[in-house]
Write a structure and sequence with these properties.
The structure is a single chain. It is built from 9 helices and 6 strands. By secondary structure, it is of the alpha/beta class. The chain folds into 2 domains: 4-14 and 90-209, HAD superfamily/HAD-like (Rossmann fold); 17-83, Putative phosphatase, domain 2 (DNA polymerase, domain 1, Orthogonal Bundle). It has a 6-stranded parallel beta sheet with strand order 3-2-1-4-5-6, with helices on both faces. Helix 1 crosses helix 4. The chain is globular, with a radius of gyration of 17 Å. It binds 1,6-di-O-phosphono-beta-D-glucopyranose and magnesium ion. Magnesium ion binds next to loops.
Length: 212
């Protein structure tokens, strides 16, 4: 029986994925490395440094660890500038209404995000105090496709993995949910993952998944 829902943040609760793309694109252009939306899809759910490594696959230049740290910091500075423009307007009515329906059903609700900017984003969209637990890039050592972020969220909620539904937009996130023994629901490209339990065509579709 499902007792809890663990939501990915970027691409599920809000659309910060467009800001990740813009910030990485600016960085890639500045160092003369080809980058497009298809490559960007491989960055969904993976950590900042792992994302940079994927971008640098196309770079003829080899960067030192310190240079990589500097590039990642530069991207994050730009990303945070985009986040600063966010507000409650960036939480859709559909997501807001669905979250409240699930809460009224008595489900525990948590965030499981690879992002170290999670708390800032939740504050911007007015959900800082909403979730029962927040597991994010600040409390894990391994990012998706490792299940650590979801396992920590389940521990915080006091539920077993098989009692929690993970909602993801990233293939790496569905891989993580499967490895951790969670039930999964996928939006966007994650809905096409061969192992996803519940492919969704909309966020509101979660209500039907959790009504059975
Ligand atoms: P940050 P999620 C992930 O968030 C993003 O999808 C991924 O593109 C990003 O690299 C990662 O967070 C780390 O984000 O640079 O803010 O720490 O999808 O797991 O909510
Ligand atoms: Mg995501």
């Amino acid at each position: 029986m499902i007792k809890a829902v663990i939501f990915d943040l970027d691409g599920v609760i809000c659309f910060t994925d467009q800001y990740h793309y813009k910030a990485w694109k600016e960085l890639a252009d500045s160092i003369g490395v080809y980058f497009d939306e298809e490559i960007n899809n491989r960055l969904r759910g993976v950590s900042r440094m792992a994302s940079l490594e994927i971008i640098l696959e196309r770079s003829p230049k080899k960067y030192t660890e310190q240079e990589k740290e500097e590039l990642a910091a530069k991207k994050n500075e730009r990303y945070v500038e985009f986040l600063d423009e966010m507000g409650p307007k960036d939480l859709s009515g559909e997501v807001q209404d669905t979250l409240h329906v699930l809460r009224e059903k008595g489900l525990k609700l948590a965030i499981g995000s690879s992002s170290k900017n999670t708390k800032k984003i939740l504050e911007k969209i007015g959900l800082k105090e909403f979730f029962d637990a927040v597991s994010d890039g600040t409390n894990i050592t391994r990012s998706k496709p490792d299940p650590e972020v979801f396992i920590k969220a389940a521990e915080m909620l006091g539920v077993k993995p098989e009692e929690a539904l993970v909602v993801e937009d990233a293939k790496a996130g569905i891989d993580a949910a499967c490895k951790g023994g969670f039930v999964s629901a996928g939006l966007g490209e994650a809905a096409e993952h061969p192992a996803v339990d519940h492919p969704l065509s909309s966020f509101a579709g979660l209500v039907d998944v959790l009504s059975v």
